[in-house]
Amino acid sequence: MIILGIDPGLATIGYGLIEIKGNKYKTLDYGVITTPAKMNFPDRLLKINRDLEGIIKKYNPDDIAFEELFFNKNVKTAITVSHARGVLILTSKMYNQDLYEYTPLQIKQAVVGYGRAEKFQVQEMVKMILNLNEIPKPDDAADALAVALIHALCLKNKNLYRMK
């Protein structure tokens, strides 16, 4: 089974693909989709769509899981990132029946064992669990791999969080 994890954003979207065979996890790919700030907004959304579509077509993931958005203060940022997330969801839905999402707290709890873990702790555990030589860079890619990992763990426990 192949899982695509996505860490939504506008300027930088993290993605991570893992394959599950029995109790073993294999990293297939990870990285970021980027859109330049100078690019006009509709073109940024189109680039996100096309880049994600290319990743989905290349790897044909069985499941796609997202990190749920969390914003404290900046409403303008929240709105633009929400638009980008909408494009990510639509593009994913075109290729997969069910989509899943997990909160940052759930991801940290599953990967580190502590819901208030620091970012570096999550990154270090992603490296260890996936048997990587180094922490995945940039941070958004490591976060996306953590999203794929929590979904893999939830599959094993039959405790899935389908997007509503």
Question: What is this entry, summarized?
Answer:
This protein has 164 residues and is of the alpha/beta class. It is built from 5 helices and 5 strands, in the order βββαβαβααα. It has a single domain, classed as Ribonuclease H-like superfamily/Ribonuclease H (Nucleotidyltransferase, domain 5), CATH 3.30.420.
Describe this entry's structure for a reader.
With 164 residues, the protein is α/β, with parallel strands linked by helices. The chain contains five helices and five strands. It has a five-stranded mixed β-sheet with strand order 3-2-1-4-5. A hairpin with a 2-residue loop joins strand 2 and strand 3. Helix 3 (104-112) packs across helix 5 (139-157) and helix 4 crosses helix 5. The chain starts with a strand and ends in a 7-residue tail after the last helix.
Give the helix/strand layout.
Blueprint: E1 2-7, E2 12-21, E3 24-34, H1 41-59, E4 63-67, H2 75-93, E5 99-102, H3 104-112, H4 119-129, H5 139-157
Parallel strand pairs: 1-4, 4-5
Antiparallel strand pairs: 1-2, 2-3
The general outline is globular
Radius of gyration: 15 Å
Q: CATH architecture, please?
A: 2-Layer Sandwich
Number of strands: 5
CATH superfamily: Ribonuclease H-like superfamily/Ribonuclease H
At the first level of CATH, the class is Alpha Beta
Write the H/E string, N to C. Answer: EEEHEHEHHH
Strand content: 15-25%
Determine the structural class based on helices, strands and strand pairing: alpha/beta
> What is the topology, as strand order, of the major beta sheet?
3-2-1-4-5
Question: What composes the largest sheet?
Answer: 5 strands, mixed
State the end-to-end distance: 23 Å
Oligomeric state of this protein: single chain
Could you name the CATH topology?
A: Nucleotidyltransferase, domain 5
- Count of separate structural domains: 1
What number is the mean pLDDT? 93
Helix content: 40-55%
The total count of helices amounts to 5
Report the uncertain regions.
none
